[in-house]
Fold this protein.
Amino acid sequence: MRSLIGSRRTAPGHRDPAPSRWAYRMQRLWLTPLFRKLLRVGLPAFAVVMTVGWYLAEDGNVQALVDGASEMRREIENRPEFQVNLLGIEGASQPVADAIRTRLSLNLPISSFDLDLAEMRTTIEGISAVASADLRIQSGGYLAVTVDERLPALIWQTRDGAALLDDEGVFVAWLSERVLEAPLPLVAGEGADHVVGEALDLFVAAAPLGERLRGLVRMGERRWDVVLRDDRRILLPEVGAMAALDRIIMLDELQELLSRDVTRIDLRNPERLSVQLTPVALEEFRRLRTLSMQGEEQNG
């Protein structure tokens, strides 16, 4: 039986259905997920890398790729839909709008890819009169700039000239650079820009003085003097300036104090009101006092 079986396996012309040793190993290897992934992904990727590496080994090929990419980018950036043709500024007065255009110095039309909106916003907000700015590129090639402009609240007279300040004491512009639509309150003195809010409150309280009011002067960076048109002054205290001013206005309404011949009303001492007479009134006061003393002597 064994000899018969052996003869059948080795009989001439008979093909053994069992796989060979190498075929068997390849079939087992093919069943391995890692091997299949290596052949399907790794081998093609390796071939691509080798091909690209061989191509990039030539300097001319690298430069050709760079030039091609640059040309493609220029063609995309210069397409009409990416061009900015118009600059619009909203929320700014004409002087500020002109300053913005000068600072940006855009050569329109320009590709939107060449615009750094963050840097442009920083440039615009570097203008003193601009509190904040927002930039957006809208359809149709329109660059919209929306500005929150600082509005002048008063005039601060300094050694360098008259400056316009907003209600927070921030410099807006020089008075010589603007045309005011209406008169603004006037302040002077070192440190006046640090207490603009207090100054504006005093101007509101001094409204009954009308056109007699000239302005406020900051004295020693501690307190205010109210200056009237005829150079008379009301010296306010360091603390309680508003109450002191209200007191003077009330006395003026009741006794016409500010219509008398006084050059200075001193309220720095809350417990005592002091007045300084004009030279003419002082001379008249001295004359009357002399006459009064002479009369007393004669009667005595």
